[in-house]
Specification:
Elements (H helix, E strand, L loop, with lengths): L16 E6 L5 H13 L4 E2 L1 H4 L6 H11 E8 L1 H4 L2 H13 L8 E5 L14 E3 L5 H13 L30 E3 L31 H4 L4 H11 L1 E6 L6 H12 L4 E3 L4 H8 L6 E5 L14 H8 L5 E7 L1 H8 L11 H7 L3 E4 L6 H11 L3 H8 L6 H5 L2 H14 L1 H16 L7 H7 L6 H5 L5 H9 L10 E5 L7 E6 L1 H10 L7 H9 L7 H11 L2 H13 L3 H13 L3 H13 L3 H13 L3 H9 L3 H13 L3 H13 L3 H10 L6 H9 L5 H7 L3 H9 L3 H13 L3 H13 L3 H13 L3 H9 L3 H13 L3 H9 L3 H13 L4 H5 L14
Parallel strand pairs: 1-2, 1-3, 3-4, 4-5, 7-10, 7-11, 8-9, 9-10
Antiparallel strand pairs: 6-8, 12-13
Helix pairs in contact: 8-9, 10-11, 14-15, 17-18, 18-21, 18-22, 19-23, 23-25, 24-25, 25-26, 26-27, 26-28, 27-28, 28-30, 29-30, 30-31, 30-32, 31-32, 34-35, 35-36, 36-37, 37-38, 38-40, 39-40, 40-42, 41-42
Length: about 800
């Protein structure tokens, strides 16, 4: 297939090739397909997956590839746009041909993503949502500079749906007519039973206001039925969202086929050939999420853009919705990016937990036809009708009342709900629950516990109430009749516990049980994040090591940071070095920082000489701090000229002197690094505004600062708030800064409690500045990692570095040494 790139035997570097394929790791399959098609058409290519041999230095290879390739192909996706390396690669090609006359940069989109800034000026080609032959033809035509005229006459747009009949629809499990679907199997909670009534039929449905609203659930379904769509009902446990969705699809799409997939893998398989007129049922949407390995926006778009409409219906708790749509801090892993991209595709319908006046009237009328409705109305004081019908009040009373009269049952139940709210969503084994429960009991209760305390506690916790629900539900492992794999917490209890126990620090026995019992793979990331938030390193370290050993670069970086903080800098460096050499950008950044902090000039210089721009930047900073500013500039200038983004940024810092203003302006005009920001700091606001209007993203970020400088702080807040709420990370960061500068703890706390991590960070900073250890400890005990970090820093300033280095012991005391 084609000709492999020639090698320059004198230097060992690749000779000239036609195309360098630029991509990010998650898109490697696409990149290899693109390279194969180009070589099949007679071109030569250079691609990391095929041409970077074992032992090669990643940054050096990338630099040489960009230099030796005649043209660069950018495999464009959302992940590509967030990659610093990818940005450097396509920008290098663009700078060699900014007018596009020589077609140095070809952009191929592999999913429906934006093309921001300069990328928007390059005409791109879409390879997604077409069959492979059509995609290959588009790709080769673009490489050859041919017109995009198709070989055959396009079909009439008003005719039959395109692609109809071109694929054979695969057999997919769980398909049936919507009208024939069992509501209970779709996730509707069973209602309370009366002695003379069975539970095979749900109660009479009480129509909700959102059923008939202009933008309500049924209106959204009708729209989706015409062109494909994703309707998501967001509401708390037992508020009736699943029943509402069931009744809506049966009313609007009764003759469509219903598919209830068991996993994200089944959804991905379905997307290859979406069946016509199907409803994809995703009750409790969070179960299908698992980062890039779970349900993704690309899969959903493939379904939504199918030739014949596919309607996706999902449900989600508000807590999950806020968590998944929250943005992380700049230097933190964006663990919810994949979920957030999925949720952006949804038409969201909120389901209230209380009935409106009109809904109450309809419920009273329904009660004349169904005595369960009347029983629910008679006993719903303090609760909604739907919660009462699902026995939610009884579940809550069974849990809370057990504290005094069934202490061992209360201990098991509370341990279960705490484990679930910490992130253990898979079935909890009996062994884990037995080991987790003791510290929820008093010393006397522990001493006088009968031999069968746990067995009796399980009997109490798993008893069904009114035939509707149990606090703990046994689950099977598929190994045979009567075989219990574990227990899951009732949704309503978990939601209540998440709210009422938010400020309660889990006891030592629960942390130890989570450490000692194998973690389900689906829970690994959540429990690791929780342990880090609480600074319980005896759990966090083994979980991080497990993920790092499996190739998780971010986990390796977190583990290295913990080791370094605890005094084991060499262990951290040894952990990061092989990952940095293999091209892990995060590992390279952390390694360079650690080498700089430890003053290891020799290894920094060796890595800089091997074209590690990050090491070069850190070494330059050390040189500048030692007074050798010219040496630092000489080290960085050739690397900045070679498109080293990090080097360019540091060089801009060093050149920010009056005598270097001319070079700084030249570099700003050439779009080097962040040089433009220094023009703003010198007070050149007119030029800053011009650059912002011309698309300079750094200048655009600085515009709200102009309002602040003119004393219009409220105006700046008003400008930033809608951008922050819409997901603009930079706006959210600046908004949090302004609120902190105003000392507005209430607004920061509101945003923090709603999931804004930037606001939580600034709130912790404020509390630390005020020396409020009590509030910091209170928020730290609730799992606020920023408060825990602020408390650690405050104690460190007073000479007590234990919390910073070792975290908390299992019992909540500050650890005196490593606990792992």
């Amino acid at each position: 297939m084609g000709v492999p790139p020639a090698t320059d035997t004198a230097s060992g570097s690749p000779g000239p090739v036609d195309f360098f394929v630029s991509y990010t790791a998650v898109d490697e399959a696409w990149a290899q397909w693109v390279a194969w098609q180009l070589e099949a058409a007679g071109y030569t290519t250079l691609i990391q997956a095929w041409d970077f041999g074992a032992g090669a230095h990643f940054v050096t290879e990338m630099h040489q590839a960009a230099q030796h390739a005649a043209r660069t192909v950018a495999v464009l996706s959302t992940a590509y746009l967030s990659s610093a390396y990818a940005a450097a690669e396509w920008q290098a090609a663009w700078e060699r041909d900014p007018s596009g006359q020589d077609r140095k940069l070809l952009v191929f989109r592999i999913e429906d993503c934006s093309r921001p800034g300069l990328l928007g000026q390059v005409v791109g080609v879409d390879l997604f949502d077409v069959d492979p032959d059509a995609a290959a033809a588009r790709l080769v035509a673009a490489a050859r500079g041919q017109r995009g005229k198709p070989p055959a006459e396009p079909s009439f747009p008003g005719g039959p749906a395109r692609r109809a009949g071109l694929v054979t629809e695969p057999v997919f499990p769980g398909r049936l007519r919507v009208a024939d679907a069992d509501p209970y199997r779709l996730g509707v909670h069973r209602a309370i039973q009366l002695s003379d009534l069975g539970d095979n039929t749900p109660p009479v449905y009480v129509e909700r206001d959102i059923d008939r609203a202009r933008n309500g659930v049924r209106a959204q379904l009708r729209t989706a039925a015409g062109r494909g769509g994703f309707v998501l009902l967001v509401g708390g446990s037992s508020v009736g969202k699943t029943r509402c969705a069931v009744e809506a699809v049966k009313a609007e799409l009764a003759d469509w086929r219903l598919i209830h997939p068991a996993s994200a893998t089944q959804i991905t398989a379905l997307a290859t050939a979406p069946p016509a007129q199907s409803v994809l049922w995703l009750d409790e949407l969070q179960k299908y999420f698992d980062g890039e390995h779970g349900l993704t926006a690309g899969v959903l778009r493939a379904l939504l853009d199918a030739a014949s409409p596919v309607v996706i219906v999902g449900t989600l708790w508000p807590e999950y919705f806020r968590h998944f749509t929250a943005h992380p801090k700049f230097d933190e892993l964006d663990s919810s990016r994949w979920e957030r991209d999925v949720l952006r595709l949804a038409a969201v319908v909120d389901v209230d937990d209380q009935f409106s006046t009109a809904e109450q009237e309809r419920a009273s009328h329904a009660a004349t036809q169904d005595r369960r409705i009347q029983a629910g109305l008679d006993n719903s004081a303090g609760y909604g009708l739907t919660q009462t019908l699902a026995a939610a009040p009884e579940l809550l009373r069974r849990w809370t009342s057990a504290h005094t009269d069934r202490p061992y049952a209360w201990a098991v139940l509370t341990a279960a709900v705490d484990a679930a709210r910490l992130g253990a969503r898979a079935a909890l084994t009996a062994g884990l629950l037995r080991d987790a429960a003791p510290d929820y009991c008093t010393p006397r209760q522990q001493a006088t516990a009968p031999a069968n305390w746990f067995e009796n506690a399980l009997i109490y916790a798993t008893e069904e109430l009114h035939g509707a629900a149990a606090a703990l539900a046994p689950t099977s492992n598929g190994m045979g009749m009567g075989m219990i794999a574990g227990y899951t917490v009732a949704d309503y209890l978990l939601q209540e516990a998440t709210r009422t126990r938010r400020g309660e620090r889990p006891p030592a026995s629960l942390w130890a049980a989570l450490r000692d019992h194998p973690t389900h793979p689906d829970d690994l990331t959540r429990l690791t994040e929780t342990a880090l938030n609480y600074r319980v390193y005896t759990l966090a370290v083994p979980l991080l090591r497990q993920q790092a050993d499996a190739g998780d670069g971010f986990a390796a970086g977190c583990l290295a940071a913990l080791l370094a903080e605890a005094g084991d800098q060499q262990g951290a460096i040894d952990l990061l070095r092989p990952r940095a050499d293999a091209g892990d950008w995060n590992a390279a950044i952390r390694l360079a920082d650690l080498l700089a902090e430890s003053g290891d000039w020799d290894e920094l210089r060796r890595r800089a000489d091997a074209d590690d721009v990050l090491a070069a930047s850190r070494l330059a900073k050390l040189l500048a701090e030692a007074g050798d500013q010219q040496g630092a500039i000489d080290l960085l200038r050739p690397r900045a000229d070679a498109d080293g983004w990090d080097a360019a940024s540091w060089l801009a810092d060093l050149l920010a002197e009056p005598r270097d203003r001319d070079e700084l302006r030249q570099r700003a005009d050439a779009d080097y690094g962040f040089a433009a920001s220094w023009l703003a700091e010198e007070g050149d606001h007119d030029e800053l505004r011009q650059r912002a209007n011309a698309g300079d993203w750094e200048a655009a970020i600085r515009l709200p600062e102009l309002l602040v400088e003119t004393k219009d702080r409220q105006g700046a807040i008003n400008v930033l708030r809608p951008r922050a709420d819409a997901g603009d990370w930079e706006a959210a960061a600046r908004l949090a800064d302004l609120l902190a500068e105003e000392g507005d703890q209430d607004k920061l706390r509101q945003r923090a409690d709603a999931g804004d991590v930037l606001a939580a960070s600034r709130l912790a900073d404020l509390l630390a500045e005020e020396g409020d250890q009590d509030k910091l400890r209170q928020r730290a005990d609730a799992g606020d990692r920023f408060a825990a970090s602020g408390l650690a820093d405050m104690l460190a300033k007073s000479g007590d570095k234990r919390l910073r280095r070792y975290g908390f012991a299992l019992d909540g005391r500050i650890a005196d040494g490593p606990t792992w």
